[in-house]
Amino acid sequence: MPVAERTPQTLYDKVFQAHIVDEKLDGTILLYIDRHLVHEVTSPQAFEGLEVAGRKVRRPDCTLATTDHNVPTTSRKALKDIASFIQEDDSRTQCVTLEENVKKFGLTYFGLSDKRQGIVHVIGPEQGFTLPGTTVVCGDSHTSTHGAFGALAFGIGTSEVEHVLATQCLITKRSKNMRIQVDGELAPGVSSKDVILHAIGKIGTAGGTGAVIEFCGSVIRSLSMEARMSICNMSIEGGARAGMVAPDETTFEYLKGKPLAPKYGSEEWEKAVAYWKSLRSDPDAKYDIDVFIDAKDIVPTVTWGTSPEDVVPITGVVPDPETFPTEAKKAAGRRMLEYMGLVPGTPMEEIVVDKVFIGSCTNSRIEDLRAAARVVKGKKVASNIKRAMIVPGSGLVKEQAEREGLDKVFLDAGFEWREAGCSMCLGMNPDILSPKERCASTSNRNFEGRQGAQGRTHLMSPVMAAAAAITGKLADVRKLSQYNGSPHIEAAIAPEPTAEKAHVDERIETDDHEKEALTDQPEDSSPQVNTSVLRSGAASAAGGLPKFTVLKGIAAPMEKPNIDTDAIIPKQFLKTIKRTGLGNALFYEMRYTAPGVENPDFVLNREPYRKAKIIVCTGPNFGCGSSREHAPWALNDFGVRSVIAPSFADIFFNNSFKNGMLPIPIKNKADLDRVHAEAVAGREIEIDLPNQLIKDADGNTLCAFEVEEFRKHCLVNGLDDIGLTMQLEDKIAEFERKMSRETPWLDGSGYLKRKGMGGKLAVKPAPVPKTNRGDVKTEPLEW
Ligand SMILES: CC(C)[C@H](C(=O)O)[C@@H](O)C(=O)O
Ligand code: SF4
């Protein structure tokens, strides 16, 4: 008998397959998670849920926590503790809550006095916490960064954070396979950021929806790990849940000596490398979507609009929306130009900027800082630039940069040299743009209000942002005199280390920019009016969500494509530690013209839509961007239990179900138009979930809809899926035994006892009496 041929697998298929704990007939999969990163914004409600239900963290040894989004980036010289250091109330509460939770649940935590603190996606790789072939999650959409190691890494919402904390598993489905192959050689001045901006321009922000992107080709192979991270980081901006690069010698080299990687040279290291080498797509593996990019088509790229797909070569001009293909695109383009304060036809190089931000989980690593420093060295920040900031991604990046004298290069040029954190990438801390200020930014999102209410963001690479700082305008780094670009900016050699170590703290302490703090806070910045826990029923296993069967109500019509979660709920409202009370903040920027002043044109401010229970949006890709579960919480709190749209971003889609809400994708335009017409007419519609039908107010069917069996079952019965997963304890425990045998390096192994990195913990994890995994005496609790 001929041996049946094995179906060729992609890298994604292999990693996914290796983590399946259980598979249901409808394709719902219980996936084991090896690595869980936790930050202060998306975890408080998850820990609260655990506590209410009397649950423990299953694998404290596979969980790593830090504070990054809310932390000030001012000098920490006078830091005593986080409670006295953070001035803004809500930010402080979130950070203090995380510290309490890590103590309560016995987790490893890098606090502000620890050099290893930093942006969650910088510290994971830096510590070797992220390893090839692992599954990595975090309540943060840019978890895709970690895919650079050949890990399957993706962002999750807070309910899923709770699910992973309790069970170390996630309920999921297989994604599509997408491949982006970039061949050739990058020209001088072109870096990995340009590669990914170019790719997103090509595929669009919904291009990767439902897919995991594998990046391959000679360009990707030639890039450093940090450059690969910048590319995978922005997979989410292309709509994909995750991005991956097959591990190779560059990966192994990077991991050598990392504190949490298997010890280099040991038997375990050899075993791990042998396994990691198997993690590549089979030659004849099939992809659902294939994209080819020729490196010679990529030039330094910048964004002009308010979506990451709005890219243009720096040599180009501001596009004219009147040339866009559809009426909807024209309208969106006009709005963007108005928001951005731009006129069609203006050469990009003539756009004057006010601020420069070099940082974020996309571009705050040592190679980014080295590349920017090469551009800046010996020059001065232009006089029109109000503020140019360098925010290293972690304390260790900062320390390394100072060893190399980069801080001095930046300070001499007139940049600020800050402490690690997310900073002006989204401005949950005091680092924000003032209204109408224009920023050259190395971050990843240019959504309206992203860096501060009415702020204007242009995304670009670190060398391009450095060039903008020097010239005072968006600039083509290739034209700067003395700029000697190398084909791979990422591989550029650091400036000579200077003997004298610059000290910047004095300067920063007197920095009156701090006073800008919170100018974009709405008057009512603590919108929690109702402190009850939405999922209070979660206390009883497998119970707790309101049942969803038939929903009848007014539907509010919307038309915009790519309604992002920053628009659904802006960052200043993410500081709550509750799931409730966010209804007032829903669509904040669109809904109010000033704090408390309603915009009469916005649909939810008009009758009968003030009472809408449903939203019908004709624009695709609803809920794109950040993983914030605050988006469905805000909709829910307002009273909206269902959103109908042509398509949804994956994380928002998932998050909705976890809150007993029903997102309905309707691809057929005629069907959607019929439902939309009822909404426009202000008539009620009825969503009949058991029969999967949408009806008009008189009970006539408008159209049918699809919903996955398992999700429907949970909604109709109001089931809490954590309880359901915990019933599979035997399977999970068996899977863990197999993992410990086959990949023993993934079990936590006394990290805190290894003092190699010299860092000290601000908060010592307290002993954990009992975990969900079993007996505390027989299992490792800490790294
Ligand atoms: C706060 C968090 C939910 C969010 C994300 O998921 O991306 C943030 O990191 C962002 O960049 O908007
Ligand atoms: S995208 Fe910005 S806010 Fe989000 S994790 Fe990265 S640095 Fe932080």
Automatic annotation (TrEMBL):
Residues 13-472 form the Aconitase/3-isopropylmalate dehydratase large subunit alpha/beta/alpha domain. Its cofactor is [4Fe-4S] cluster. GO terms for biological process: L-leucine biosynthetic process. Belongs to the aconitase/IPM isomerase family. The keyword Transcription does not apply. The keyword Protein transport does not apply. The lineage of its organism: Eukaryota, Fungi, Dikarya, Ascomycota, Pezizomycotina. This is 3-isopropylmalate dehydratase. Its EC number is 4.2.1.33. Residues 772-783 have a biased composition (Basic and acidic residues). It catalyses: (2R,3S)-3-isopropylmalate = (2S)-2-isopropylmalate. Residues 512-532, 762-783 are annotated as: Disordered. Keywords: 4Fe-4S, Amino-acid biosynthesis, Branched-chain amino acid biosynthesis, Iron, Iron-sulfur, Leucine biosynthesis, Lyase, Metal-binding. Pfam families: Aconitase, Aconitase_C. HAMAP family: LeuC_type1, LeuD_type1. GO terms for molecular function: 3-isopropylmalate dehydratase activity; 4 iron, 4 sulfur cluster binding; metal ion binding. GO terms for cellular component: 3-isopropylmalate dehydratase complex. Pathway: Amino-acid biosynthesis; L-leucine biosynthesis; L-leucine from 3-methyl-2-oxobutanoate: step 2/4. It comes from Achaetomium macrosporum. Catalyzes the isomerization between 2-isopropylmalate and 3-isopropylmalate, via the formation of 2-isopropylmaleate.
